[in-house]
């Protein structure tokens, strides 16, 4: 019998993400080029500069700099705000990427102290912000990935950001999935970004690029970011394979988010009908959500493998255990659009039967 991972990678259909990742994206990105630009060098050259200018324009920010990773970009952004305020303290959600996935980079490399806002299983609120002492910056992650991609209501977000401004706190947006939020807010990227002093956007995740991130803000802020980038490992000699594929993926999928979101809502309705299943949030506010299952990880894995062997469709994403529940993070992309409805219904029925 195949392992769960093996079965997912050989399934013909998937209810998660984009088509199996392919290195063909490199040739697709090259084929899409209308000119034959020279390679960038150490962060300069038309390939990188034109893309940075384009994203600055779309996000309504003065300047942008392309980074190999969001991890690098955000630690740098937060360090700059702390230096500017001469206060090495900032506040963010207890489950934000910097707190749980970056091996304490902020603390170890930059000696920045962090204040956790609210509780791990919910969004932070105005009431949580009001308990914070002085901080240099508050980081907002939209959507909040680790709790199923939840989003505060627009008015609450505006109120919280205004409150930060009134206390002199800078605000940074972890917008790894910024474009995914736009259909829910019914706003443009620039309208959302206007709330924040600095913004980071990722080109993989729902956009499906190879890797890469953009950090955007004022020209003065970005000049400082360039210096810190050099300190953090400097510009790679050539970044064009990442820049070109990021640009290609951005053009390909930036306007698809509302379709992905509709699919997420429909899929949540189907999953919530299965006994012992509960999606978080109940109704998704973007193309991602988490599924909490009252069955053991082993049981869920075995049932999913059986479904894949019978119907050739992978129904969930990776599995983990949290608070005694089996959890899967699911996000809708191109692959989900290709799964025939009847096949999905039959596969879900089989999954429900297998789990009893
Ligand atoms: C919300 C969020 N922020 C930041 C990052 C870091 O991005 P990168 O992998 O480019 O370092 C991720 C990556 O998964 C993320 O999900």
Write up what this structure looks like.
- The chain has about 350 residues and is α/β, with parallel strands linked by helices.
- It folds into two domains: about 5-20 and about 255-355, Aspartate Aminotransferase, domain 1; about 25-250, 3-Layer(aba) Sandwich (Aspartate Aminotransferase, domain 2), CATH 3.40.640.10.
- It is built from 16 helices and 13 strands.
- It has helices spanning about 5-10, 25-30, 45-60, 70-85, 95-100, 105-110, 125-130, 155-165, 180-185, 190-195, 220-230, 240-255, 255-270, 295-310, 335, 340-355, and strands at about 15, 65, 90, 115, 135-140, 170-175, 200, 215, 275-280, 290-295, 315, 320, 325-330.
- A hairpin with a 2-residue loop joins strand 12 (about 320) and strand 13 (about 325-330).
- Helix 2 (about 25-30) crosses helix 12 (about 240-255) and helix 4 packs across helix 11.
- The mean pLDDT is about 95.
- The protein binds pyridoxal-5'-phosphate (PLP).
- Pyridoxal-5'-phosphate binds near residues 71, 174 and 176.
- Pyridoxal-5'-phosphate (PLP) binds near residues 69, 70, 174, 176 and 202.
